Amino acid sequence: MSRSRIRIRKAVIPAAGLGTRFLPATKATPKEMLPVVDKPAIQYVVEEACAAGLGDILMVTGRNKRPLEDHFDRNFELEAVLSRKRDDKRLAQVRESSGLADIHYVRQGDPRGLGHAVLCAAPHVGDEPFAVLLGDDLIDPRDPLLARMTQVQERFGGSVVALMEVPAAQIGQYGCAAVRATGEGDVVRVTDLVEKPAPGTAPSNLAVIGRYVLEPAVFDVLRRTEPGLGGEVQLTDALRELARGAGGPVHGVLFSGRRYDTGDRADYLRAIVRLACEREDLGPDFRAWLLGYADHELRTMGPDSVSSSDWPLLRNDSAVSTNS
Hints:
Blueprint: E1 10-14, E2 35-36, E3 39-40, H1 41-51, E4 56-61, H2 66-71, H3 76-84, H4 88-98, E5 102-107, H5 114-119, H6 122-125, E6 130-133, E7 137-139, H7 145-156, E8 159-165, E9 175-181, E10 187-195, E11 206-214, H8 217-223, H9 235-246, E12 250-254, E13 259-261, H10 265-278, H11 283-301, H12 311-314
Parallel strand pairs: 1-4, 1-6, 4-5, 8-12
Antiparallel strand pairs: 2-3, 6-11, 7-13, 8-11, 9-10, 9-11, 10-12
Helix pairs in contact: 3-4, 8-9, 10-11
């Protein structure tokens, strides 16, 4: 069986970052454990991997990340208390995270960048394709991006990245792809990649977001990849070499669905508001309060104080973009 036909079953979640943008909250709490409504951000990512059929998960962690392991382990004392109280709903919620997947852990040691974190997964992954999911990007479960990416990898082989159009002013915050069309509307062939291009130099407005499906050939490339931007080993640099013929093609899946960016404080707050508004148990009351608050802001501070793009969200318009 060729590599391109091997069913992808393993996922790697890099989780060794210090979360400095969220200090002081992340002084003693991993940023991955910050709640998004009522679940830690990392649980959304694990659930996404499982929904795509990837039940073998490796988390690449660092110091002070023990709460990640505790969250996905059993808590017998808490379960016993909830059981005695016959609180079946909360008992099921507590048990859910420990039964999601077969989760393993490895420490990155020195924080030498995303490429180095992925390389730490080589002994666990072995000689088979695998997925990488970054915890700063939450993908709505109604938009099965990862499942589509595994389909593309199984068809074309090589590696696959998730691409999303962003405003030209923002492309310098991402890896950026040069592409050419294929025979499928949502699939492109990646011909070049640039990490955080300088203003005016980006080859497109297609940003690489935090989902990858990688051929194991990436490990050999990462081993010889020198530190790049920021003195770190950049996964983008290794994928650029692969795209130029060093180990199989690189394709991109064009994504236009619901993505919640939890990478900085403002977008993290927006993600919580959007997800809370869409919850059946929280949404109606929360939207009513939010409409009242927005109306108060409009009356006291003027119409420019609230963005018009937020009004469809408050009206529960399902077509609203979640990428602003």
